[in-house]
Design goal:
Length: 240
Amino acid sequence: MDSSGKPDYALRVAISEAGYEEGKPTIRSIKLEVAPGELVGLIGPNGAGKSTTIKTILGLMAYVRGEIEIGGQNKRYAYVPEQPVFYEYFTLWEHLHLAASAFGIEEKAFAAKAEELLEQFRLTGEKHHYPTHFSKGMQQKLMLIIAFLLEPDIYIVDEPFVGLDPRATTDFLTLLDGERARGAGVLMSTHVLDAAERICNAFVLINKGSVVARGTLGQVRQDAGCAADATLFECFHALT
C-alpha cells in the first residue's frame, strides 16, 4: 500500500502453474507486477505461453494454482484481444452503450466520452453502422474505444498494433499515455519488439511456459548475457 492506503500495484500475478486441464500445466512460475502508470511488455515467441498467461489473468483457464490481484481504486480491468469480438446485430454505438451500462457509467458522462473517443479514432461517421462490415483495423479501434471508455485500473492488451494504421497507432499510444498519467497500468503482449523497446518501462520475457527474464531493458540485457547496448530483439534472440 502507498501512503494513501491504495494498493501500490495495478496488477500482481503469481502463477505456480496453469493449463487447460489439471495435471497438464502449460505455464509455470509466472510472476510479474505492473505498477500504476507503468507499461510492461509481455514478450515471447509463438507458443511460449503468453496467451495462456493472459487467459489465466482473465480467469479463463480451467486449471490454475496461484494468485491474481487487480489493484487500483476500482479494481477494474479492460482487456483488448488480438482478434476483435463483437455482436453481429449491434451497431458500433450500441456496443459502447452496452459496455457503459455493464459498468454503471452514467449516461451523460458516457455519451460525452464516447463521442470524444469516436472523433479521436475517426469513427464518428460509423457510429450507427455494424462492425461486421468494418475492416480489421476499424474493428480493432472499436475494441480500443471500449477499453478507454471504461477507464480501468489495468489495461491488458494483446497485440494492439495488428491492423492499426500509423495514425491510429499514434492515437492509441497518446491515449494510453494519458491513462498512464491517470494512474492506470498496462500489460501489453506484442511481437513488435522495436515499438516495445521504445514505449515499455519494463519487460517480462516468456519461453517454454516460464519467465526467462524480467525487468528494465538493462536487467533483461544482463539476464540474456548481452552487451550494454543490445536491442530488445537481440536479447529476445539470445533468450529464446
